[in-house]
Specification:
The protein has 420 residues and is of the alpha/beta class. Helix content is 31%, strand content 26%. It has 14 helices and 24 strands. The strands form 7 sheets. A 4-stranded mixed beta sheet has the order 22-23-1-24, covered by helices on one side. Strands 4-5-3-14 form a 4-stranded mixed beta sheet. It is globular. The termini are close together. Bound molecules: uridine-diphosphate-N-acetylglucosamine (UD1). The site of uridine-diphosphate-N-acetylglucosamine (UD1) has 23 residues, from helix 1, helix 5 and helix 6.
């Protein structure tokens, strides 16, 4: 296992480019299961999570070739309907093979993903959705065994106690493309990644309207064909580098940013005291005034993303005054607080809220990465801190940030990777 050593408290400069979106790639790769024809996906980020999905597709019988950031998926043998525990337990995103397998093979045996450090993470909405489409399911030895004599379109309300679910929307949307008749998904997730997935399915021949809104209508078709698709930029990676620039008082250029996907972050950064220079898809930060504390609450898109909550907390840790951050999407996603406090931050948790008393400086320390976005927050904290930070268990970062160390070195950061 590797660790990351960061010498912090230095402004960064230069430019970096944002990679393709991880969360768009995962369901789009899964959607290739809906056809026997060849799909070519470009701008796929080289990440542990995308590799896990590729391995899963191979284990299901697909032939997958990779060439730099292009992935070609074809069918040379029959598909298997069993998604193994080993694959699904390492990455929840794998669970979105359930809908396509069920639609294509009329049965699926997919391991339940289980919880993770950010919370319990149930799959009730996924199961409610496929049941409404006419599948019967049992839970057996940690697996969902779903069967159908033929999926049928239906009106499905997919809102849960914590809002819509991104991957439940993906599962139901993919299953509905090959169902008989019309499916209306109400309270669907509006995340740009779901819009990308729907657009990919449309290029495969699916009949979908309303993607990117809470009401998606799908008219089932008999068959889907192969397609080519280019994955758009990762809004969470872009948001992470934007927060990094604010946190290190740097104005490096961030290329390939779709700022319309980041309006909630941009709004919060304006409250904080930052404005943006935009030229095409390139963003640079511009300081308006001294930093001010702020309060924010995470919501489903277009609200402030839970996937940027930890990174924003790192920024707030040295902002004078009291900031308040509430996570309404994952109320337990606060494992990073203890690590930031080890670096001298003053953060207290109360239920799903963190109260951050800004300190003058934070200081380098050995810390432990616990999940993907918490790890990104520790990298930001390390680059803000005086002294040297050692981040252990950095494999989490490789799940979601393509070439993170290379990109940071390109910005002039003093970052080294070492074997533990
Ligand atoms: C996706 C993203 C993840 C992001 C999350 C929320 C991918 C691969 N991952 O995860 O990066 O943090 O959206 O934006 O795209 N819930 C239920 N029942 C369900 C499903 C979810 O109650 O059946 C709850 C969850 O516990 C959570 C909330 O709904 O509180 C949102 O979760 P969901 O949108 O499903 O997250 P994922 O799709 O797993």
């Amino acid at each position: 296992m590797d660790k990351l050593i960061i010498e912090g408290n230095k402004p960064l400069k230069g430019e970096i480019e944002i990679s393709g979106s991880k969360n768009a790639t995962l369901p789009i790769l899964a959607a290739s299961l809906l056809t026997d024809e060849t799909c070519v996906i470009r701008n796929v980020p080289k990440l542990r999570d995308t590799m896990t999905m590729i391995k899963l597709l191979r284990s299901l019988g697909k032939t997958v070739e990779t060439n730099k950031n292009q992935v070609t998926i074809s069918s040379k043998k029959d598909l298997s309907y069993i998604a193994d525990y080993k694959m699904v337990s390492t990455m929840r995103g794998s669970f979105c093979v359930l809908g396509p397998l069920l639609a294509k093979l009329k049965q699926a045996r997919v391991s339940l993903p289980g919880g993770c450090v950010i919370g319990v993470r149930p799959v009730d909405l996924h199961l409610k959705g496929i049941k409404a489409l006419g599948a019967k399911f049992n839970i057996e030895s940690g697996y969902v065994l779903a069967k159908t004599t033929g999926l049928k379109g239906n009106n499905i309300y997919l809102g849960g106690d914590f809002g819509p679910s991104v991957l439940a929307t993906a599962n139901v949307l993919m299953a509905a493309t090959l169902a008989k008749g019309t499916t209306v998904i109400e309270s669907a997730a509006c995340e740009p990644e779901m819009e990308d997935l729907a657009n990919f399915l449309i290029s495969m021949g699916a009949d979908i309207i309303g993607q990117g809104t809470p009401k998606i209508t799908v008219k089932g078709v008999k068959k889907l064909r192969g397609a080519r698709f280019e994955i758009g930029p990762d809004r969470i990676e872009a948001g992470t580098y934007i927060i990094l620039a604010a946190a290190t008082k740097s104005n490096f250029a961030i290329k390939n940013v779709k700022s319309s996907h980041l309006l909630a972050l941009i709004d919060k950064l304006r409250d904080y005291g930052i404005d943006f220079d935009r030229e095409g898809n390139t963003v640079k930060l511009k300081r308006l005034r001294n930093p001010r504390p702020t309060s924010l609450t995470t919501y489903p898109y277009p609200g402030f993303p839970t996937d940027l909550q930890a990174q924003f907390m790192a920024l707030m840790s040295t902002t004078p005054g009291v900031s308040v951050i509430t996570d309404k999407v994952f109320p337990d996603r606060f494992i990073h607080i203890a690590e930031m406090n080890r670096m001298g931050a003053n953060i207290r948790r109360d239920g799903n809220t963190a109260i951050i008393q800004g300190v003058k400086n934070i200081f380098g320390a050995p810390v432990m990465a616990s999940d993907l976005r918490a790890s990104a927050a520790l990298v930001i904290a390390g680059l803000m801190a005086k002294g040297v930070t050692e981040i252990h268990r950095i494999y989490h970062l490789e799940r979601g940030y393509e070439d993170l160390v290379l990109k940071l070195i390109k910005l002039g950061a003093k970052v080294y990777r070492e074997k533990e």
